[in-house]
Design a protein that fits this description.
17 helices; 6-stranded mixed beta sheet
């Protein structure tokens, strides 16, 4: 069984500065392993649900967390954490929603040669380095507002702010060139914003890559239990459609990012966390990951450093975050026998995209 829980969820609000990261953790355990761990950490004596946010602030809570984090079952074979940088995802979505639509209509595959990643990373890094922080914040807010609440006014505000940023006196030439990819997208804006229900919600991509990773490791289509929280409830039906596609198992994608459709997962059910120990463990790891990567200056910095050093939180490979140069160079060389978007579009009837 795979148990999932999330932390840092703010829905499509990617501009929430107090919660800059979204994390998703999954736990793979048998009933026997769960029984063993409950006994080893004295879960019955603890007598209440495991919640990282309520535990790390007390001495007794930290002692229990130490037992969990250092238990031999809590290793790479049983725990899979992932995260997304919300601010980076703003720029990734600008590329995926707007620029990709423009390129597609002009017969260009933006994902071939990692052109999408190069542009998203370039926009992100130039944005955070730009001296006019208020204008950059306005630009980011206008994009998120436009996608969340498309209207003549919100669309006009975004493109107007894009031009303000492009022609700002402190703009670097490279940033200007990258931003100049955006204004021509307005001719396809209605098409780009058609399926806004799925935009900017980070649950689907992190869940999908987690399922793909478990399938690579085990070859098993595991059943899944979600916490009964908003992101899973809202997306469960769509993920079931990806699982139930009426096509032979097909490998799609580029290089190390290759994955399998139909989505290789078994039954997906929503459960109450207080009834499922595995979900409580997923909460602990998801919340702890957000805790370790979110900058802080309070009295818990020392404890943050302590858990940040744990092996399970080192080098989180499943992420949606700025790329290294080495990663980009590797992706630029990769080719796909089957493009994932072409595959999904070809089989859109099977996954009922328009209906959902």
């Amino acid at each position: 069984m795979l148990y999932f829980d999330e932390a840092g969820y703010t829905g499509p609000d990617l501009t929430n500065s107090k919660q800059p990261y979204f994390s998703l953790a999954s736990i793979r355990m048998t009933d026997e392993e769960i029984a063993r761990m409950k006994k080893d950490i004295s879960y019955r004596e603890w007598g209440k649900e495991l919640h990282f946010k309520g535990m790390y602030k007390s001495y007794q809570g930290q002692k229990m967390l130490d037992k969990i984090f250092n238990h031999p079952l809590m290793d790479d074979n049983h725990v899979l954490p992932s995260f997304a940088s919300k601010r980076y995802c703003i720029y990734a979505n600008i590329v995926d929603i707007l620029v990709e639509t423009l390129y597609y209509n002009n017969g260009i595959n933006l994902y071939e040669g990692a052109k999408n990643l190069i542009l998203a990373n370039g926009l992100y890094y130039f944005a955070i380095l730009h001296p006019n922080k208020d204008l950059v914040t306005e630009f980011e807010n206008c994009f998120v507002t436009m996608v969340r609440e498309p209207s003549v006014e919100s669309i006009a505000n975004f493109y107007r702010t894009t031009d303000k940023l492009r022609y700002d006196t402190d703009i670097r030439e490279e940033f200007f060139v990258m931003l100049s990819e955006i204004p021509p997208t307005i001719q396809y804006i209605k098409e780009a914003l058609t399926n806004k229900k799925f935009y900017i919600d980070l649950t689907i991509p992190l869940f999908s890559i987690s399922i793909q990773e478990w399938y690579k490791r085990t070859g098993e289509k595991e059943s899944v239990l979600f916490d009964s929280s908003e992101p899973f409830y809202a997306n469960k039906e769509f993920m079931e459609h990806l699982r139930d596609m009426k096509v032979p198992e097909t490998v799609v994608g580029y290089g190390k990012g290759m994955h399998v459709y139909p989505l290789p997962v078994g039954n997906m059910e929503i459960a109450k966390s207080h009834e499922e120990f595995g979900i409580q463990l997923a909460d602990v790891f998801a919340s702890a990951l957000c805790f370790t990567i979110t900058p802080r200056e309070n009295k818990f910095v020392k404890y943050q450093d302590k858990i940040k050093s744990l092996p399970i939180f080192q080098n989180i490979k499943l992420n949606i975050a700025p790329s290294t140069n080495d990663f980009l160079e590797e992706r630029m060389k990769e080719a796909a026998k089957i493009d994932p978007l072409d595959f999904l579009c070809e089989h859109s009837d099977e996954i009922n995209l328009e209906q959902n």
